[in-house]
Structure to design on (375 residues):
């Protein structure tokens, strides 16, 4: 089913008695496989409202991200949260959609400075599991309407409702960017350098580490970036190279955003944790497992790739994360059989699981929206 209007979407869900597999552009098959009737949102396509002067964008959920980015670029604006394109890592086809971005709360390297996708979502319209059309939020940042369903829908992966429209705040494109690259650093040295940079007043908008190389990005006006770059170079130690080539930097950060260095790995995990605990956590893993790691979000996000049988490492990741300050482990890329047999998302503590089940019972009492996907 591919509804073309919100009303069509509501009727399709209301009339459904069996499981529905909710899909946007089909680029992000994350979670346990869902057996059910395919319900695609890509028919809900279009920019409903765009007001560059108020930095406000309203789109239907099936609108391709590329269409939005082109419209914003024409006005010198962008999606500041820098959403990842999962096709690079997962080897999928299709077109990423704005509803998919919102439903999975997809956020890139700039999250450390501006926030996640959910922080830019002003309002949502969605259809719950009974076919009711629900609206929450608005088109401005100061909006108080009771329960914050906007944040609730972000990261729910279509298990609480199917998005039909989303309102976003957008921001201007920075005049210039500079990237400081520090060579020859191990993980502990990288986290130390990144922590020093993040603790400074020089507004780092990207901080990543891969294979002995640490990258720090600053953005802003010509004068501001030049000054902050100079101060950061004097603050940090070691071999530092400043990249001023705008196109080369765009490619570098696009590759980090899309986790391109791990595209050749059979299994990839996304681990969110306390940055200061990341070096010890990785050292523990590397004693027994051969892995490749891309560190983003100043060390708070670890992408871990492996070519071995994923079960032993998967179980260790989800078990040991609690011994290193807590966090979340998600199996993002794996063979279908592994996604079926392993707990893709971090198991929730009993109290949180009870709240989650209560929400699902309230918003999807028939249990038909992507059932089992997040188990």
């Amino acid at each position: 089913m591919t509804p073309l209007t919100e009303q069509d979407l509501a009727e399709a869900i209301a009339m459904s008695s069996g499981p529905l597999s909710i899909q946007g552009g089909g680029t992000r098959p994350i979670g346990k496989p869902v057996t059910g009737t395919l319900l695609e949102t890509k028919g809900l396509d279009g920019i409903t409202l765009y007001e560059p002067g108020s930095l406000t964008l309203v789109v239907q959920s099936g609108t391709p991200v590329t269409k939005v980015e082109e419209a914003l670029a024409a006005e010198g604006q962008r999606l500041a949260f820098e959403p990842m394109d999962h096709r690079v890592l997962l080897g999928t086809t299709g077109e990423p959609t704005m509803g998919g971005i919102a439903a999975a709360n997809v956020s890139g390297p700039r999250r450390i400075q501006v926030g996640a996708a959910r922080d830019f979502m002003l309002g949502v319209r969605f259809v719950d599991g009974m076919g009711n059309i629900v609206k929450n939020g608005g088109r401005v940042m100061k909006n108080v309407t009771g329960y914050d369903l906007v944040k609730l829908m972000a990261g729910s992966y279509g298990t609480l409702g199917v998005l039909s429209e989303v309102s976003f705040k957008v921001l201007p494109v920075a005049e210039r960017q500079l990237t400081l690259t520090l060579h020859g650093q191990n993980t502990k040295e990288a986290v130390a350098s990144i922590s020093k940079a993040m603790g400074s007043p020089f507004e780092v908008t990207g901080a990543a580490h891969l294979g002995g190389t640490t990258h720090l990005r600053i953005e802003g006006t010509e004068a501001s970036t030049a000054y902050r770059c100079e101060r950061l170079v004097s603050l940090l130690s070691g071999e530092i190279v400043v990249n001023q080539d705008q196109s080369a930097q765009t490619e570098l950060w696009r590759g980090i955003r899309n986790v391109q260095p791990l595209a050749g790995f059979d299994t990839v995990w996304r681990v969110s944790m306390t940055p200061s605990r990341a070096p010890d956590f990785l050292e523990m893993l590397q004693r027994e497992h051969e892995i490749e790691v891309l560190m983003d979000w100043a060390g708070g996000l670890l992408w871990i790739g492996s070519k071995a049988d994923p079960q032993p490492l998967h179980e260790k990741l989800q078990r040991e994360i609690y011994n290193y300050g807590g966090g979340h482990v998600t199996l993002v890329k794996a063979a279908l059989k592994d996604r079926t047999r392993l707990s893709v998302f971090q198991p929730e503590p009993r109290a949180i699981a009870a709240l989650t089940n209560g929400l699902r019972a309230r918003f999807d009492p028939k249990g038909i929206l992507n059932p089992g996907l997040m188990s």
